[in-house]
Write a structure and sequence with these properties.
Helix content is 36%, strand content 25%. With 244 residues, it is an alpha/beta fold. The termini are far apart. It folds into two domains: 133 residues, P-loop containing nucleotide triphosphate hydrolases (Rossmann fold), CATH 3.40.50.300; 68 residues, no CATH class. The longest helix is centred in the C-terminal third of the chain and has 18 residues. Helix 6 runs parallel beside helix 7. The strands form two sheets. The chain has a six-stranded mixed sheet, sandwiched between helices. A hairpin with a 2-residue loop joins strand 4 and strand 5. It is globular. Pfam families: ABC_tran. This is Phospholipid/cholesterol/gamma-HCH transport system ATP-binding protein. Keywords: ATP-binding, Nucleotide-binding, Transport. One of its GO terms (molecular function) is ATP hydrolysis activity.
Length: 244
């Protein structure tokens, strides 16, 4: 018997004016899986995850998270569902005017309103330890390198103990060594926290390290699916072009 996917998308369409971004995509994210969506800029990768969390409303199609239809949810119901989802934004999206401790505390209090002040500090330390940056707790984001800011962004996603993590270009703007470190950290998080993750990227090294399965998106349509090794041997010239 096939288990219910954590995320199931069917026939998803989204346009902005005359610009058709998503043209009927289908995908499923299984429990405990890292699913990579690979595509060039403008192919619809980021719009897909924005539709999943309700930041953008789909024009047509179905989005189910843990069996719940997202497109039908009211505002409060959608917020309740978002508590299960950690989101690592492309630019890190840390609050510049807050210390690292304050950034993580703000997120935790927003998601867990009944948590006491005494209980918050240990959670912040645990999240920072999970990304190897506990010594940065009192620093400001501007004092950290790009790679360190990405790690803090991941700690902020982890602090709410999500079932699902959505990564939007987690290695963009980083050098090769730091990109690899972030990719390996994503893998560690999957193993340690048993998360199910959707990873949006155009970084082939990141896709190879993190992805149990890869979908390739081209102009709003999924044109290929498989493991890194399977897609690398594809007979489709456009698919193979990613691996050169």
């Amino acid at each position: 018997m096939e288990t219910q996917p954590i995320i199931a998308i069917k026939n998803l369409h989204k346009s902005f004016g005359q610009n058709n971004i998503l043209k009927g995509i289908n995908l499923r994210l299984n429990k405990g899986e890292n699913l990579v969506i690979l595509g060039r800029s403008g192919s619809g990768k980021s719009v897909t995850i924005k539709c999943i969390v309700g930041l953008v409303n789909a024009d047509k199609g179905s989005i189910k998270i843990s069996g719940k239809e997202v497109t039908n949810l009211k505002y409060d119901e959608l917020n309740d569902l978002r508590v299960k989802i950690g989101f690592m934004f492309q630019n890190g999206a840390l609050y510049d005017s807050m210390s690292i401790r304050q950034n993580l505390k703000f997120t935790l209090k927003h998601h867990t309103r009944d948590l006491s002040e005494e209980a918050i500090e240990p959670e912040i330390i645990k999240a920072l330890e999970s990304v190897g940056l506990q010594e940065s707790i009192d620093k400001m984001p501007a004092e950290l390198s790009g790679g360190m800011q990405k790690r803090i962004a991941l700690a902020r996603a982890l602090i709410i103990k999500p079932e699902i993590i959505l990564y939007d270009e987690p290695t963009s703007g980083l050098d090769t060594i730091t990109s690899r470190e972030i990719s390996e950290l994503i893998l560690d998080v999957q193993k340690k926290y048993k998360t199910s993750s959707l990873i949006i990227t155009h970084d082939m090294a990141c896709a190879k390290i993190t992805g149990n399965r890869i979908l390739i998106l081209k102009e709003g349509e999924i044109i290929a699916e498989g493991t890194y090794e399977e897609l690398e041997k594809s007979k489709d010239e456009w698919v193979r072009s990613f691996f050169i």
